[in-house]
Amino acid sequence: MTTASDSRKIPKWILLVSALFAIMEIMVSVMLLFSPESVLETVDLSAKGVEYIIYMWAARQFALGVIFGFSTIKKSVPMLTVSYIFFFVMFVGDFLIGISQNENSLIISAVIMCAVSATMIYFLNRRK
């Protein structure tokens, strides 16, 4: 059953940004699996349990990439909205981690990505 929100045309720029996020998330996942030292410069990769955490993080990034990719291919406003809500919540968490770790670069990137996510949610759901 098609709802009114499903039948709305999604602007091409939103689909392009969403596809780029999908590719980016999958690339991060692959880098975490095959070259974690390139992503985690300050982490002792030989410490007990770190490999497990890296695999969990890679799985999260891969899942997010697949979700973004699928919702972009389907061109579904509700699916893309849920994807960006998840993205927003994830970066709020990164923001809080950045504050607790006093990591300015994480704080700044999280604020930017929260703004991008909120903007995408707004443009996906605004009424014409």
Describe the protein in words:
With 128 residues, the chain is mostly helical. Helix content is 80%, strand content 0%. It contains six helices and no strands. The chain is globular. 17% of the residues are buried. The model is unreliable at 1-5 (pLDDT under 50).
List keywords for this structure.
128 residues, mainly alpha, 6 helices, globular, disordered N terminus
How would you summarize this macromolecular structure in one to three sentences?
With 128 residues, the chain is an all-alpha fold.
What form results from the Cα inertia axes? globular
**How far is the first residue's CA from the last residue's CA?**
22 Å
Largest sheet entry: none
Uncertain runs are 1-5
Give the helices and strands as they follow along the chain.
Answer: HHHHHH
Number of strands: 0
Strand content: under 5%
Number of helices: 6
Average pLDDT metric: 89
Helix content range = over 70%
Radius of gyration: 16 Å
Kindly name the structural category: mainly alpha
List strands and helices in order, with pairings.
Blueprint: H1 4-7, H2 12-34, H3 36-39, H4 50-74, H5 77-100, H6 104-125
Helix pairs in contact: 2-4, 4-5, 5-6
